[in-house]
Every structure is written in structure tokens, then in C-alpha cells.
Specification:
eight-stranded parallel β-sheet; TIM Barrel
Length: about 280
């Protein structure tokens, strides 16, 4: 499967790494590092050199308890960076946002995929996605980033996530977004306790079975810190193990801060999965 991301191809016939580029002052792992356009562009170029298949630009942190950013502020953060990357780099760019105004501005600036943690539930977001006519990634989350970790509960987290994602796919199709432009994200860490995240990872194949590309974002997340009692800077090894587990079950996109290492991990996993049996 090859996705057309506004004229730039994302080849999902093999797993791809989505490099995280946060142009925010408060993201949990790299907040403030890439606010300046020059440093953001340099980081994007490095991620491409390291093997990223797509760059994900975000202007509002979605970590638990993050502050809400105004539309104008978010646009002022992401648009110049997207324009700079689009003019110099020949791989797709995704915009990590839920706001319809930011969606429209980012796609006009050169982004080719909408990565929405609210699954196009914000008023006007679906209309913006239809008008922009680019692929969309629909993520499951319980609650908002401000409240999602207060007391998350599920009857059956895997079934509940699948039910939500299928409902959002149906809404998108009814609005005019074709199924072949949809990616699913189970939303690790978004309104989920550690046990919920583990259940989702253990049964990720059930989401893969929906026969839509699946994106997994677990890079350096707090679930690792809580389970292993390690800081953000010490979470690479665990992030790579979860990336490999995800690809082994069929995930097509791994969203990561550590592109080079993640590319190597999922390439080895892919090689093992595809090797011909002999003897």
C-alpha cells in the first residue's frame, strides 16, 4: 500500500518510522529544542538521513496536563517549519493537530497527512479533512490531554478502542473520506493506565485485523517510566522493544523520537518476518 500524501509517497509495503518534530516549549521529551525554524529544519534533515519515512510536526503538546494553545499561536509555530521542510525535503510531512484551522493552514503550507489525537471529533475537523483531501490518522483517546490520566476506566480496553475506531472510520466514510486514506492509532498513553497499554500491545493484532494501516506511538512514554522506573532519557531500549513488538504484529508506522535506532530495530524485525524458510 502506498499513500499519496499531497504528492509525496508514503510506502507502507514495509514498516516506516514517523519522526517526531515538536515545535513546542512544553512537550514531555523534546520541548523547546526545535522552536526555532533553523533548528527544526536541521532536525528534520537529520531524521531523513536516519531513515524516517515521514516527519510529524506538532505545535501543541498533548502530554497529560498540557496547556491549551490558541489557533493563531499553533499556526505561527507549525506553518513556517512545514514550509521550510516542504521546500527542502522530499518525504511526506504530517500535521499533529485537532484544530480545523490548523489543519487547513498546515496542508496549504505543504503537509500531506493529518495526525489527529482527537480523531476528527472537533467541530469542523472532518470538513477540513474532506476539503484538504489527504490521508488521516484517527487516534483513540479517553478524555482530553488536560484530564485523560485522572481516572481512566474501560470495560474491555481492546474492544472499546476497536469500537471507537470503527465508529470514527464510519463517520469519515460517510463524510467522503475514503477508507484507503485512513490510518488507525490505538492511542497508547492517552487516557490509559499502564495495564491498559500492556493489554493493547499484547492484543495489537486485533486492531491490525481491521485491515487498515496501524500507527503506534510509544516512544519514551510514561508507561515505560512507570513500569521500569526510568527517566525519559533512559527509555530508548524499552521503546525499541515495543516498536519491534508492534511491527511483528503488523503495525505499519512507528512514531519515534529516536529515528535511527527505531529504523534499525524495525528493519531487522521486517527482515526476519520476510525471510524465506529453507530446509
Amino acid at each position: 500500500m502506498i499513500l499519496d500524501c499531497a504528492g509525496k509517497a508514503l510506502d507502507l509495503t514495509h514498516p516506516q518510522v514517523m519522526g517526531i518534530l515538536n515545535v513546542t516549549p512544553d512537550s514531555f521529551s523534546d520541548g523547546g529544542q526545535f522552536l526555532a525554524q533553523d533548528s527544526a529544519l536541521a532536525q528534520a534533515k537529520q531524521m531523513v538521513a536516519d531513515g524516517a519515512g515521514i516527519i510529524d510536526v506538532g505545535g501543541e503538546s498533548t502530554r497529560p496536563g498540557a496547556a491549551i494553545v490558541s489557533v493563531d499561536e499553533e499556526i505561527s509555530r507549525v506553518v513556517p517549519v512545514i514550509e521550510a521542510i516542504h521546500s527542502e525535503i522530499d518525504i511526506p510531512i504530517s500535521i499533529d493537530t485537532s484544530k480545523p484551522e490548523v489543519i487547513r493552514a498546515a496542508i496549504a503550507a505543504g503537509a500531506g497527512l493529518i495526525n489527529d489525537v482527537r480523531a476528527l471529533t472537533v467541530d469542523g475537523a472532518i470538513s477540513a479533512a474532506v476539503d484538504c483531501d489527504v490521508p488521516v490518522c484517527l487516534m483513540h483517546a479517553q478524555g482530553s490531554p488536560q484530564t485523560m490520566q485522572d481516572d481512566p476506566r474501560y470495560d474491555d480496553v481492546v474492544s472499546n478502542v476497536i469500537e471507537f475506531l470503527l465508529e470514527r472510520v464510519s463517520v469519515c466514510e460517510q463524510a467522503g473520506i475514503s477508507r484507503d486514506k485512513v490510518i488507525l492509532d490505538p492511542g497508547f498513553g492517552f487516557g490509559k493506565r499502564a495495564t491498559h497499554n500492556l493489554q493493547l500491545m499484547k492484543h495489537l493484532a486485533k486492531i491490525i485485523a481491521l485491515e487498515l494501516p496501524v500507527l503506534v506511538g510509544v516512544s519514551r512514554k510514561s508507561m515505560i517510566g512507570k513500569l521500569l522506573n526510568v527517566s525519559v532519557e533512559e527509555r530508548l531500549a524499552a521503546s525499541l522493544s515495543l516498536a519491534a513488538l508492534s511491527v511483528w504484529q503488523g503495525a505499519k508506522i512507528i512514531r519515534s523520537h529516536d529515528v535511527r535506532e527505531t529504523v534499525q530495530a524495525i528493519m531487522m524485525c521486517d527482515h526476519v518476518m520476510k525471510v524465506q524458510d529453507i530446509g
